[in-house]
Write a structure and sequence with these properties.
This protein has about 190 residues and is an alpha/beta fold. The chain is built from 5 helices and 11 strands. The chain starts with a strand and ends with a helix.
């Protein structure tokens, strides 16, 4: 197991949270769910799966993640930011674990994760959406989250980042209505 804390931001993610947590359990020493006062069973499922759960009022994704970094007393070398509708496969989890161990003591301070996005049960492979590449794993103290209202990114402060070769999955199992509602809020 790598020296990793996984942080998952949630609001009403009961359809997604179980699979997300299960996908990082083999590689994360600590899993923390930062919940925005869900009204479904998200919190209960997360606790049942062994995750720590803290509640915090949601402003935006960036502020929620910054709050987590600032208040969780993280003592692992690596930090992962993952959404509830994202999953590591067995193969991608193994690759990530190997990369974190291999680069524990060098100038690699970030790992770019590749995602295959599925919409309504079908992988999206066209239109410039595959693969989505996002810096999601970084060494504690070596990166920061941009304080933006939307399209925030983790930025490495020093050193370099590398990219995973294996895809992770972005599989939101909410309805089309929920997807439209989320984009209307954007």
């Amino acid at each position: 197991m790598a020296d990793l804390t996984a942080i998952i931001l949630t609001l009403n993610e009961e359809k997604n949270i179980r699979d997300c947590i299960a996908s990082v359990q083999p590689i994360a020493k600590r899993i923390v769910v930062v919940d925005s006062f869900s009204t479904d069973n998200t919190v209960e499922i997360a606790k049942e799966m062994g995750a720590e759960v803290i509640a915090h009022e949601f402003v935006n994704q960036a502020q929620q993640f910054i709050y987590a970094i600032d208040t969780l007393n993280i003592d692992t070398k690596w930090i992962l930011r993952i959404d509830a509708d994202e999953r590591f496969t067995e193969k991608s989890a193994e690759e990530l674990e190997n990369l974190m161990i291999e680069h524990a003591d060098d100038d690699v301070n970030g790992i770019v994760v590749r995602f295959e996005v599925s919409f309504m049960g079908k992988p999206l492979r066209h239109g410039g959406i595959y693969p989505i590449k996002v810096l999601r794993v970084f060494k504690k103290g070596c990166a920061h989250m941009e304080a933006r209202n939307m399209d925030e990114h983790i930025v490495i402060n020093e050193g370099r980042s590398i990219e995973m070769k294996t895809d992770c999955l972005h599989q939101d199992f909410k309805s089309l209505y929920a997807w439209v509602e989320r984009h209307n809020k954007y």
